Amino acid sequence: MNQLKCLLWDVDGTLADTERDGHRVAFNMAFEEAGLDRRWDVPTYGELLKVTGGKERIQFDIDRGGMHNMPHETIAQIHASKTIHYQNLIADGLIPLRPGVLRLLEEAYAADIILGVATTTTPSALNALIEHSLGHAWFERFAVLAAGDIVPAKKPAPDIYTYAMKELGVSPEETLALEDSGNGWLAAQAAKLKCVITVNDYTRNQDFNGADLVVSEFGEPDSPAVEIFINSHNLNDVHHVTLEHLQRIMTKTGSW
């Protein structure tokens, strides 16, 4: 019987609802700063989220005619500017954690579960979110912060998960991924991980077939019950997602 030993967290859309009023807004601020007339509205950014990675997202928009062509160095400069704007938005308290995230993190840490991050967001953006939304102590509580270009292939490739597990010395059989998107689920699936999905406005209609649990959010005991979209293990008491639910999922047979 598999026991839960490690939780690997995605960041954007999972730890915090960063996309709509965080990354998208920061991209537009960087475009304006660079003298570009391109702005990504909510529907456009929803389309672009199918592409993983900020620089890759800009290149994709160029390739499809959304922006004029520019050298890779300029794209990198715009993305660096965007990261600074994003960090400022976090520092101003404009990007809070999603419901239930801090509770689950604290429950897992108290139970000596290994905690790690596996994300395609930049290390500087991740550090800003931890510093301002979780607190400095969490830099030590996360045993690995696997982020950005630390691996060559981003999600939906499994590389970031494989890297994090190797760094932590854990196996897929004792690790569970927490994600919010179809690309994240594909990455976790390819890494042979069980996976709980907490959707958002951008991802709720994506394909999560085969995921272990898909919910509207992790939720809180004193809030309305979360909405359940997929419940592969027939958990019958999910008012809000708890560490016990995650542990019970790990004891079930594989769902990938």
Keywords:
Rossmann fold; 7-stranded mixed beta sheet; alpha/beta; 256 residues; 7 strands
Description:
Strand 4, helix 9 and strand 5 form a beta-alpha-beta unit. Helix 1 (19-33) packs across helix 4 (72-91), helix 3 (54-63) crosses helix 4 (72-91) and helix 4 packs parallel to helix 6 (123-134). A seven-stranded mixed β-sheet has the order 3-2-1-4-5-6-7, with helices on both faces. The protein has ten helices and seven strands. The radius of gyration is 18 Å and the shape is globular. It folds into two domains: 6-16 and 97-250, HAD superfamily/HAD-like (Rossmann fold, 3-Layer(aba) Sandwich); 19-91, Putative phosphatase, domain 2 (DNA polymerase, domain 1), CATH 1.10.150. With 256 residues, the chain is of the alpha/beta class. The two termini are 17 Å apart. Helices cover 41% and strands 12% of the residues.
